[in-house]
Amino acid sequence: MALGIGDDAALLNVTPGQQLVMASDTLVAGVHFPETASGRQVATRSLCVNLSDMAAMGANPRWFTLALTLPNDKANAEWLADFSAGLGDIAKQHDVALVGGDTTSGPLTLTLTLVGEVPVGEALTRGGACSGDGVFITGYLGDGAAALEAITNNNSLHRASDRLLQRFYCPEPQIQTGLKLRTIANACIDISDGLMADLGHICKASGVNAVIQTEQLPIAAEVRELSPLDALEWALCGGDDYQLCFTVAADQLAKVEALIELGELDACRIGTINPSDESINAVSVIDKNNRLLTVEKLGYNHFGH
Amino acid sequence: MALGIGDDAALLNVTPGQQLVMASDTLVAGVHFPETASGRQVATRSLCVNLSDMAAMGANPRWFTLALTLPNDKANAEWLADFSAGLGDIAKQHDVALVGGDTTSGPLTLTLTLVGEVPVGEALTRGGACSGDGVFITGYLGDGAAALEAITNNNSLHRASDRLLQRFYCPEPQIQTGLKLRTIANACIDISDGLMADLGHICKASGVNAVIQTEQLPIAAEVRELSPLDALEWALCGGDDYQLCFTVAADQLAKVEALIELGELDACRIGTINPSDESINAVSVIDKNNRLLTVEKLGYNHFGH
């Protein structure tokens, strides 16, 4: 950057030919992460979650500001050093610079505002899905909800593995995948509220419906074993996965399947975009016998919007 | 903007040839404004204070995000309508667009992040003051501190006038003046912490000293009358004025004095930049008899940094 922290504002050089992508997210202790989370865990989760919005737009993250509200018991050198180290690690990993912010006293709350760049006209949005598109998801679904369950009810039955803790406190923002998808995907969103809700956002913005097949959902073996009864609901309705859900036009499907086969894209197909039909739910779910699963059965109505 | 609220992030078109200016500020109820402030007052103060950072950089404000944490007693349609109307009025006045944000539940706190534009290389910074520069201030000093005193101790002796309430809840961001100063000022800052502290920031960043003459300080008649004993301290050390303090090179002084004379610049000269001298305070204050006023006498040491 041209001028960083220390003046009234930061001065930043935009790359010619790029549009800006800007997003803000607030995380509150006890709501978005447990009160017991360490400084490092708070920092890494907050920055990763915010970077995920950049990934969903196909943007290259560049700069961020941090507004940090700290309670007295955390306003000490030790907590701040742990926090700063975590923030620095993720910022370095994704080449994004902290350019300003503010600290105040109060209950632990963080607001991050990220600004990224995307070539003019190439941003991924929620509004481009078309009937006939394939629906894809990166990585695994349900990890976020399984981790939250294990952290919240930490006992011998639901022990949070290192992998699940990592998925919760350091969810890998899919930045590189987002960049690749610019020329591949018709629509894209990151899974923060749960697949049903977030794919629903794509359907609403694009004026289409979607159908998801349960046996194609990528659910980690660990999550299936943790609670076979809950695994499907976590995958469909749990939030906090921060994977990308995207749609691909019919004539691009072979190319995307080839990229997946070659290991150049960590994703799998989970469904199809259909024409709009207001007489049914925007997102339908069918099992391997093509039976429609109802909202009530899946219990995801309390995630509805 | 190209795409606003409703996707994962906002998509913004930067004007070619411009650098970005980015700043974040948090305001907390009971700290930065009274708990009793109305929704409109909270909104206008928050946005004006943040716009002031753009003015200090000579930037043209373009976009902002708002992270709003609301307590239950304010999460209702009436409070939000009042808040939104206030925010909308200031945003419209300065042609700045709300492009995203987040709402959470908790003690009333606002974090605004503004992004503005400035032609490459023309931003005003704290670091350009040179020995021989004149020191100028826009508008009046001490209004912010007088208003805070009147609001905090609201009685028959210290009644907050409509003018002072307006200065506190709706401090006029000096955007247009900031734009004019791009080609005039060597250094610039906005007065948020008080003249002594903020001019001190210019001195530190520029490696110079400054001397201020008390009889040249622009103090409103109302403030002098409110408390003749306090007026000088409010002007020197009170925060919340959100005026611009700037320095002008010796060979530009006649031009600036002419602009002031013509009414094209609402500012007045209050002092001079001197060479660095570490044996004395960076900012000295002298009275009309050229007597040096000491730090202790003025009582501004608790604003020190």
List keywords for this structure.
homodimer; 305 residues; alpha+beta; 60s Ribosomal Protein L30, Chain: A; Phosphoribosyl-aminoimidazole Synthetase, Chain A, domain 2; 2 domains; 7-stranded mixed beta sheet; 10 helices; globular; disordered C terminus
Write a short abstract of this structure.
With 305 residues, chain A is an alpha+beta fold. Chain A is 33% helix and 26% strand. In chain A, the strands form 2 sheets. Chain A has a 7-stranded mixed beta sheet with strand order 7-9-6-10-8-11-12. In chain A, strands 2-5-3-4 form a 4-stranded mixed beta sheet, covered by helices on one side.
Notes on the protein architecture:
- The structure is a homodimer.
- Chain A is of the alpha+beta class.
- Chain A folds into two domains: about 20-120, PurM-like, N-terminal domain (60s Ribosomal Protein L30, Chain: A, 2-Layer Sandwich); about 135-300, Alpha-Beta Complex (Phosphoribosyl-aminoimidazole Synthetase, Chain A, domain 2).
- Chain A has helices at about 40-55, 75-95, 145-150, 160-170, 175-180, 195-205, 220-225, 230-235, 255-260, 295-300, and strands at about 10, 20-30, 60-70, 95-105, 110-120, 135-140, 185-190, 210-215, 245-250, 265-275, 285, 290-295.
- In chain A, the strands form two sheets. In chain A, strands 7-9-6-10-8-11-12 form a seven-stranded mixed sheet. Chain A has a four-stranded mixed sheet with strand order 2-5-3-4, with helices on one face.
- The termini of chain A are far apart.
- The model of chain A is unreliable at about 295-305 (pLDDT under 50).
- Chains A and B meet through strand 1, strand 2, helix 1, strand 3 and strand 4 of A and strand 1, strand 2, helix 1, strand 3 and strand 4 of B.
